[in-house]
Amino acid sequence: MSEENQGLVVFSHGKESGPQGTKIRVLSGIAEKHGWATDSIDYTDMMDPDERVGRLLDELEGESRRPLVLVGSSMGAYVALVAAAALRPQGVFLMAPALYIPGWKEQQYPEDLERVSIVHGWHDELIPPDNVLRYAKTANCDLHLLPADHRLSAVLPELTGLFEAFLRRVRGGS
Predict the structure, then answer these.
(1) Largest CA distance in the chain
(2) Long-range contacts at 52-59 (CB < 8 A, ≥ 24 apart)
(3) 3-class state of residue 67 by DSSP
(4) Residue 46 contacts by C-beta under 8 Å, 6 or more apart in sequence?
(5) What integer is the mean pLDDT of 148-165?
(6) d(CA 115, CA 159)
(7) Separation between Cα atoms, residue 33 and residue 136, nearest integer Å
(8) Choosing a second label site near 122 at 20 to 30 A (CA), which of 44, 66, 74, 157?
(9) What's the pLDDT band for 2 if we cut at 50, 70, 90?
(10) DSSP bridge pairs for 128
(11) How many CB atoms lie within 10 A of CB 17?
(12) Spatial CB neighbours of 12, under 8 Å, sequence gap ≥ 6
């Protein structure tokens, strides 16, 4: 498969994580198994979420030729979702997204994206499920609330299954 047709999945890690965290490594393997190229942006040198958005946009400048999926966890989910407004990817997969955080620049998120799927923990100690419900309701997107905390590590098998199904829907266009 040519690189142009292959599609690209780009991961954005959370504030306390890094570009090779457990979820990213596992989900990258799934994406590659399904024929996607993968990249994981390193934001460990910056704490400001909007600077991270700028880095993601810079990294993906000129990538409009092939299918794009953005994946983010926590602050990285904020980064992916805010950047998606400009990038218009074929899909956005958000894990424990840090949305509606007081003091962060963006408080309005794109509601007209092609495909958005969210996985969040009912017991998330950092981001209340109500924040995610608020966005999911306005964006009319997939929302999976699981019995987990912010890291989602207790539901990694479910998370991987949801991601795999998401990639199939993006690839199939349904």
Answers:
(1) 44
(2) 52/12, 52/76, 52/79, 53/79, 53/82, 53/83, 53/106, 56/10, 56/12, 56/80, 56/83, 57/83, 57/86, 57/87, 59/10
(3) coil
(4) 52, 55
(5) 97
(6) 17
(7) 29
(8) 44
(9) very low
(10) none
(11) 19
(12) 40, 41, 43, 52, 56, 70, 71, 72, 73, 76, 77, 79, 80
pLDDT digits (tens, 9 = 90+) for 75-94: 999 999 999 999 999 999 99
Amino acid at 4: E
Determine the angle formed by the axes of helices 22-33 and 156-172, rounding to 10 degrees: 40
Q: Which residue has the tokens 């949305």?
A: 99
Q: What residues have CB less than 8 Å from 127, skipping those under 6 apart?
A: 74, 96, 97, 98, 99, 101, 120, 150
Cα separation, 132 vs 164, in Å, equals 21
* pTM beyond 0.85, yes or no: yes
Decide: 147 and 155 in contact? Cβ < 8 Å. yes
How many alpha carbons lie under 13 Å from residue 6 in its C-beta half-sphere? 16
The structure tokens listed for 34 are 């399904």
